[in-house]
Amino acid sequence: MRDALTRPATLFASHYIDIRAPHAASSVAAQLQDTGLVTTDGLTSRAAVLGFATGLMRITPHPHGDPDGLTAIHDTGVHAHRAGFAGLGHGDLEAHTERSGVPNPPRLMLLVCLRPAAEGGDVLLADGHDVLASLSADSREAPVMLSKPRTAYFGAGAGHPAQVFTVHADGRVSVRLRQDGLARWSPVVHSYLPSLRRAVAGCQRRLRLQPGQGYLVDNHRWLHARTRFSGNRLCLRALGEPRTPMPEGFAPDSVGICLPKTNETV
Fold first, then answer.
1. What pLDDT was estimated at residue 83?
2. What is the CATH number of the domain that holds 159?
3. What is the pLDDT of residue 133?
4. What are 146-201's pLDDT values in tens digits?
5. Stretches in the chain below the pLDDT threshold 50
6. Distance between CA atoms of 3 and 266, rounded to whole angstroms?
7. Which one of 39, 45, 83, 221 is most buried, counting C-beta atoms within 10 A?
């Protein structure tokens, strides 16, 4: 039998920070800059979620949010079949970054489970760093084309023109994506979308959140999704800007990845 110490840690365990520990806030900030992902627990009430969120970020209001800035994520029974509202249904939610259809998406997203589903409802997370590396291994052209400005249009109405990968002046990369009915694509990138979807699916890792457990991500780096579920699942979400400065995006692998500078904000 394999020794317990040699087993790979789960995604939750490998990114876990005890927010009750001394200097937890500085540990969270450092890990966000390093990996872009923090998992934690003990957030068993709305007040606890709000307190944790406001200590780390300046909360950004959301159109479906409550007055305190948090948004209840649950099956409302009326939104499931509307484009852009899959998160408020019970079906599969495809990998995406939050608020992709606005000019400046919030940098941080916190999601905490207060009540898990009876079945399903697992979180699927994919690190944009790994997605880019996987996509580059599959096709050298795909990342270049998906970095070209205005090759994607995300959001309702005219949408916000953008690109999946934004390459900053220092070479760091940010990600922006949605894959629902509010995503439209330039014909020049259509042939690369299957490779992108394969890369995202291949990099996804699963979180099965229990009451009080949650994750905090760099929304310019990590893609998140959810499996379909049954039951009265309830999560709380906060979006916002970090109180501690963070470098934009992530540093891509230097070998085999050559992307043009986008020279646009994410």
1. 63
2. 3.60.130.10
3. 94
4. 999 999 999 887 779 999 999 998 899 999 999 998 999 999 999 999 999 999 99
5. 1-7, 265-266
6. 44
7. 221
Separation CA 168–CA 34 (nearest Å): 18
Taking residue 126's Cβ as centre, other Cβ atoms within 10 Å add up to 23
Residue 111 pairs in a beta bridge with 215, 237
In a domain, 5, yes or no: no
Cα separation of 61 and 102, whole Å?
A: 13
Contact 227, 121 (CB under 8 A): yes
CA 220 to chain centre: 7
CA 101 vs. chain centroid, Å, equals: 14
Q: Distance between CA atoms of 21 and 134, rounded to whole angstroms?
A: 36
Q: Structurally, how many domains does the chain consist of?
A: 1
Task: Specify if 256 maps to a domain.
Answer: no
d(CA 129, CA 253): 8
Domain for residue 253, yes or no? no
- Count CB neighbours of 138 within 10 A: 17
Six token digits for residue 7: 């087993």
pLDDT on residue 4: 38
Q: Nearest to residue 162, comparing CAs of 154, 170, 173?
A: 154
226, 122 contact by CB (below 8 A): yes
Residue 264 in domain? no
Give the per-residue pLDDT at 85. 67
The C-alpha angle with vertex 102 and arms to 51 and 147, in degrees rounded to 5, equals 115
Q: What is the pLDDT of residue 61?
A: 87
